Amino acid sequence: MEEDVLYHLDLGTKTHNLPAMFGDVKFVCVGGSPNRMRAFAQFMHKELGLAGDGEDLADICAGTDRYAMYRAGPVLSISHGMGIPSISIMLHELIKLLHHAKCRDVTIIRIGTSGGLGIEAGSVVITDMAVDSSFKPRFEQVVLDDVVVRSTELDRDLAEELLTCSKEIPDLPTLIGHTMCTYDFYEGQGRLDGALCSFSSEKKLDYLKRAYDAGVRNIEMESTAFAALCRLCGLRAAVVCVVLLDRLEGDQIRAPREVLREFQHRPQRLIAAFIRKRLGLRPPAGNTLCPTE
Ligand SMILES: O=P(O)(O)O[C@H]1O[C@H](CO)[C@@H](O)[C@H]1O
Ligand SMILES: O=c1cc[nH]c(=O)[nH]1
């Protein structure tokens, strides 16, 4: 293409010098909420010891309110909204952006929230395999009038590296497991607290227990599309999500907001430690506090 307009990011090859803006990016972190991804960029700014307090980081996609994007040194932090269609659009444009910017050796990590299966709220799950609602490691993408099936395997070495990193961080219960990705938060995740209750409590528990037996430890809404797209485009990718509740015990997320905020910060602490380690940096003195959003 003579020109590539990255419409939803409000960036383009003719309007922006993408190699100058992004050519040295080495880590891309993505997550659903714009506020979380701004807070993560501010946190990374401090963790990397960059100049200034990082409080006034500019949204690189400010011209659009579809997604928000922030930079802290070699780390790009981008929101993707909720669900597969939203993350797919962002990833297509992000991957083209990395290509146009001539980025090399990029690691991409989704830092999210999820519902747990048989594990305590606050646990962090590093995904070894993203599976669909039938517990299969596949993502079905409709292309023209075909259903194309794509693999959702993630980088095992990267998952192990992250697990090793987690062991050096206090109060960060972390495990590796399968992550189930659904098209909905309510019926799609076997919840009975949505507007529709189309199955019994027994059927719900039977389904969730079968998921557990298949190796699923948490449930969210983007991992299969994320894994499939990153794999096909040759990006080393990981999914790291905190668990907000144990779905074998209930459907409603009842933890107080401050507790949820601290939970949300856990994947960020792990990824900050991982990035610092990769860059050969020491942790900054006394700075593992949860930033306010
Ligand atoms: O916490 P984030 O990354 O937004 O993701 C999870 O939270 C949303 C549902 O509350 C879904 O998008 C799910 O995947
Ligand atoms: O139960 C949950 C919690 C967060 N995100 C999800 O998709 N499901």
Automatic annotation (TrEMBL):
GO terms for cellular component: cytosol. PROSITE patterns: PNP_UDP_1. GO terms for biological process: nucleotide catabolic process; UMP salvage; uridine catabolic process. It comes from the Eukaryota. This is Uridine phosphorylase. Residues 26-276 form the Nucleoside phosphorylase domain. One of its GO terms (molecular function) is uridine phosphorylase activity. SUPFAM superfamilies: Purine and uridine phosphorylases. Phosphate binds at residues 66, 110-113. Belongs to the PNP/UDP phosphorylase family. Catalyzes the reversible phosphorylytic cleavage of uridine to uracil and ribose-1-phosphate which can then be utilized as carbon and energy sources or in the rescue of pyrimidine bases for nucleotide synthesis. Shows broad substrate specificity and can also accept deoxyuridine and other analogous compounds. Pathway: Pyrimidine metabolism; UMP biosynthesis via salvage pathway; uracil from uridine (phosphorylase route): step 1/1. InterPro entries: Nucleoside_phosphorylase_CS, Nucleoside_phosphorylase_d, Nucleoside_phosphorylase_sf, Uridine_phosphorylase_euk. Substrate binds at residues 189, 191. Keywords: Glycosyltransferase, Transferase. It catalyses: uridine + phosphate = alpha-D-ribose 1-phosphate + uracil. Its EC number is 2.4.2.3. It is an enzyme of class 2 (transferase). CDD domains: UP_hUPP-like. It holds the Pfam family PNP_UDP_1.
